[in-house]
Amino acid sequence: MQKLIALYLAGQRPLRDGSALLLEGDPRADCRSGGVHSSPLARAPLHSRRFMKVPGFDMPLGEVKASLEPLRRPLSIAILRARNPFNVGAIIRVAHSFLVKQVVLVGDEPFYQRAAMGMQRYENLVYLPDDAALCAWAAERGLPLLVFEREHARVDLWHADLPEECLMVFGSETAGVPETLIAAAKQVIAIPMYGINNSFPVTVAAGIAMAEWTRRHFVAGSVEGRP
Question: Using CA atoms, how far apart are residues 219 and 148, in angstroms rounded to an integer?
Fold first, then answer.
């Protein structure tokens, strides 16, 4: 299990014999001698290279999930499923990259699992029927709601308080976030934009929000969110 965690943090996938496959672009796969590439892959023209599909973990699903638990962050996120099938799957994929504690899916509409690239299997998914159940679930756990909604924002992301344990809420690009959740939110947050477009894609917004939270709490050498 400890070896799996080490390989995961190093960006590698374990093979059946316990070794690791280094992906193209990894400097460890680019052996140099006197400033000359000695790796056949590095010397080959890009169009002639054969790219390999990295094999999956040769471990039971439950064991992989258990191995990831000690690495998880205390951040939880909630996604409103109404009219949001592709983004739900895509945000699950992004959430896995940040190893959030839980992903709460609100509503009963199916989501596009292929957009999650299989990462839904490794996440702690919580299914709730509606907004009221989400508010009750968060209150029971003492998690403040941080709603991301540009039209009703009270603060921008760079100046928002992002507690270490919190629940970020993301709506759909068509329906946004309902007023009941906006009223229940500790903060309603907008991500600053500098172009003429109206909004970020919700998957991008979720990734920016999780990255900023991670930067503040888990970047070595940062003080109060400052590098």
Answer: 23
Tokens coding 99? 């190893």
Report how far residue 17's alpha carbon sits from residue 6's, in angstroms, rounded to the nearest whole number: 16
Answer yes or no: is 97 within a domain.
yes
pLDDT score recorded for residue 175: 87
196 and 92 in one domain?
yes
- Within this chain, do residues 50 and 81 fall inside the same structural domain, yes or no? no
Nearest to 5 by CA among 62, 54, 66: 66
Structural domain range at position 92: 72-218
53 and 118 both lie in a single domain: no
Number of domain units in the chain = 2
The CATH number covering residue 80 comes to 3.40.1280.10
At 179-216, the pLDDT tens digits run: 999 999 999 999 999 999 888 999 999 999 999 999 99
In a domain? residue 226: no
Amino acid (1-letter code) at residue 220:
A
